[in-house]
Structure formats: C-alpha cells, structure tokens
Design a protein that fits this description.
Elements: E1 10-13, H1 19-35, E2 38-41, E3 49-56, E4 59-66, E5 69-73, E6 85-90, E7 96-99, E8 102-105, E9 111-115, E10 120-124, E11 128-135, H2 137-141, H3 160-169, H4 181-199, H5 203-210, H6 213-228, H7 237-244, H8 248-257, H9 262-278, H10 288-294, H11 300-311, H12 315-331
Antiparallel strand pairs: 1-3, 2-5, 3-4, 4-11, 5-10, 6-9, 6-11, 7-8, 7-10
Helix pairs in contact: 3-4, 3-6, 4-5, 4-6, 7-8
C-alpha cells in the first residue's frame, strides 16, 4: 500500500456504495485497516459512515458523520501497538463512551480523551457528527501534567481552549492553506498547544502555548468572523474584540504579527468580495454602487479610490473587462 501523504486528506464514505456492500466496506476496509476499530451497526438502522481525515506528522484530525453504531478497540486490534490518544468531540449529546472502568455519557460539544492502548467502546445512539483528534501520547504527556488521569473525564463545551481548538481545526478543511511542510508543521504544533491547554498544560507548556497556539487559533477565529461578516457596515475592531473576549490592542497585535492590521485585512476582504462580484456575470444587473455597499463599503468615493489602488483599474474597467471576456468565450 502506498504511503499516505500529509497534504491530501483521506476520505471514506458509504454514501456512494451499494447498500449490500456498506457493512463489509465499513468494517473490513475502513474499520480494521484504517481506523483500527471494530464497527458494529445497530440492527435495523440504515448504515451511514463518512470520515474525512487530514494526516499530518504526529497528528490526525478527522471529521466523522455516522449512524447509530458501536465502535470498539478490541483485544486483537490492540496488537498493532498503537498507544496514541484521541480527543473526541460530538455535536450531539447522549452518546456513551466506556474505557478504563469508567463510563461517560457525552454532552453536546463536550470532549472526552480516549486511549488507543486500552480496551474501550463508544456507542452512538443517533446520527452523530464528531471531531476526532489523534495525537502522540509521548509528546502530549510532556505537555500535560498527569495525562493518564485525564482519560474519560468530560471536558465541558464552555472550556475556552476547547472552543478555540474546534474553530482552529476547521482550518484543515482548506487544503490550499497547508501546501508547504512548514505550514503543516506549524498547524501540528498549534493543535498540540491547544489540546494541552484543554487537558491542563504544565506551567511551562501553558506559557509557550499561550504565546503560540492560542495566538494562532485566536487570529484564525477573528479572521473567520471578519470573512463571515465582511458585508456588515458595523463590523468594528472594538465590537469584534468584545465578542472574542480580548482587548482591541490584543487584536491589533495579532494582525501586526501577521504583517498587517485589522483595518487593512478588512479592506482587503471587502475589495476581494467586490472584485469577485464585478467579475461574475450573475451580478451583471447590479449597479457598481449596489455592489460596493454589498461588499461592506459605506462610502462610494472611498471604494473607488481603494479599488483603483488595489487593482490598477476602476470598478467600471473591471466589469467591462469581465463582460468582454464572457462575450469572446460565447463567440468561440
């Protein structure tokens, strides 16, 4: 079997398989060969299992959707010698995880630490969407005091580091941002920092993590909020900082460490949105003024000046060039 590359996600899904083949493929191909888990569907429930996993050095981040089932780490599977740990977070409540003589009924968006080196099981009682993060035990143990005591201890959804971790993990969905080995290693480091803080990092590890992984995750969360609300006129530094629970100066420092400012990043995103709309035939009937306002600009003169500085042409030029290009393609 070819070695797995850490720049290409691994995907397994029953969705496109004939129903008669789903159980065998899930249990034998994915369960025993890849996940190293015994998978037992609940009788009478249509089988659904979909996982997309990003394989990184010393780290696997998997997004899983599955129907009611029981997954187990059994005696025969323990012979693989894997002693990784997995932090498991489910979007819904009521699922039962058992290991080391303890049972946990999960709450929505809570997290539980699971050991691959020990017998254990997890039962999903309904369609379950979860995030699983597998990490090297030896590395994490050097960052977390008393790691062995953290297994099967529910971590509440209100845990700030857990919220940052969940948000930061979404970065892995955009493969274009992880094209270099340096970026992938940085993400691995940041995830370990955040997981250590979730579980209770040592003083030294916490100090390092707060200056490294937390800053990266916080900046990612802030940028995501900006991208999701770029068209809002009231999107301000003070309001964003308040929602993130930090000071405006801290937000500015995060952007400065990234080589930009809050105002410049927001302006860039609004210009990109306007440029995309002006270049898209679907928006041909909208006026340039309407597009400027929809992109978040409250002043048309400011929009025109900023657009010309950024793209070396006026908004009208950009629309005309896109219209001409479409006409030429239609004539070919």
């Amino acid at each position: 079997m070819a070695a797995l590359r850490d720049d290409i996600p691994v995907l397994f899904s029953t969705d496109e398989l004939p129903e008669r083949d789903r159980l065998a493929a899930t249990r034998e191909v994915h369960g025993r060969l890849t996940a190293r888990l015994d998978i037992e569907p609940v009788p009478g429930v249509p089988l659904h299992y979909r996982v997309i996993a990003q394989m990184l050095p010393g780290l696997v981040v998997a997004s899983v959707s599955r129907s009611s089932m029981i997954v187990r780490r059994t005696h025969d599977l323990l012979t693989d010698g894997n002693d990784d740990v997995a932090l498991m977070m489910s979007s819904s409540a009521g699922h039962m995880v058992s290991q080391l003589g303890r049972e946990v009924v999960t709450g929505a968006r809570e997290a539980t630490l699971f050991s691959a080196a020990d017998l254990g099981s997890a039962r999903a009682v309904s369609v379950q969407h979860c995030l699983n993060i597998a990490l090297r035990r030896r590395v994490l143990a050097s960052m977390v005091l008393g790691l062995e005591d953290r297994f099967m201890r529910p971590i509440p959804s209100e845990n700030e580091a857990l919220q940052l971790l969940t948000s930061y993990a979404s970065l892995l969905k955009d493969q274009q941002k992880l094209k270099t080995a340096e970026l992938r290693q940085a993400v691995v480091t940041h995830v370990y920092d955040l997981v250590a803080l979730v579980l209770g990092a040592t003083r030294d590890a916490a100090e390092i993590a707060n200056g490294r992984g937390v800053r990266a995750a916080r900046l990612h969360a802030i940028k995501t909020e900006i991208l999701n609300g770029v068209d809002r006129y009231d999107l301000s530094l003070a309001g964003l900082a308040a929602r993130q629970g930090v000071t405006p100066r801290y937000v500015q420092m995060l952007f400065e460490s990234d080589g930009t400012t809050f105002s410049q990043f927001l302006l860039d995103q609004r210009l990109k949105r306007a440029h995309r709309m002006l270049s898209d035939p679907r928006f041909a009937e909208r006026t340039i003024t309407a597009i400027a306002y929809e992109a978040g600009f409250g002043d048309l003169s400011h929009f025109n000046r900023a657009f010309r500085r950024r793209y070396g042409e006026t908004p009208s030029d950009a629309r005309g060039r896109a219209t001409l290009g479409l006409a030429n393609r239609l004539e070919e």
